[in-house]
């Protein structure tokens, strides 16, 4: 069985862009509209010798009460349940948000292996600007740029290493 990586995070952080890069596909819808990808998308990925399945998800709001957000949260929980490892994507430019804290709490509670990726980090200094993400209590923060293809190989190797 190939390992399964679920991409989780609030809307607009770049999950679909990362999914496309991991799977070299244009399947996932990349948009400036928050939360447009409302479903799960599966794709085959390969990084060097490693093969894996990636799952793209809509934006995650763990406490969403109703409607489309409730459905998105359900889809994301299912993706996380199916995954061997979660890549939790945050937005290095926007900084830490309350939603990020909610998602982190959920992932910590589950105890599922999680790698924290700070996306949109192209041209940023790793130190000061990323330090706030350590507050999420998920360990190391890995700067990546999904759109520029930076840090992706290291991220995937790290995510797959313990499997
Ligand atoms: P999702 O809602 O988390 O799936 O986010 P998308 O993949 O749809 O991307 C949301 C927006 O962020 C789009 O405008 C992307 O072009 C942009 N984006 C994605 N990755 C990067 C990145 O690495 N750097 C920058 N600057 N923008 C990015
Ligand atoms: Mg998306």
Automatic annotation (TrEMBL):
The keyword Repeat applies. Transmembrane segments: none annotated. GO terms for molecular function: GTP binding; ribosome binding. Residues 3-163 form the EngA-type G domain. GTP 1 binds at residues 9-16, 56-60, 119-122. Keywords: GTP-binding, Nucleotide-binding, Repeat, Ribosome biogenesis. GO terms for biological process: ribosome biogenesis. The keyword Nucleotide-binding applies. GTPase that plays an essential role in the late steps of ribosome biogenesis. Belongs to the TRAFAC class TrmE-Era-EngA-EngB-Septin-like GTPase superfamily. EngA (Der) GTPase family. Associates with the 50S ribosomal subunit. This is GTPase Der. The lineage of its organism: Bacteria, Pseudomonadati, Pseudomonadota, Betaproteobacteria, Burkholderiales. The gene is der.
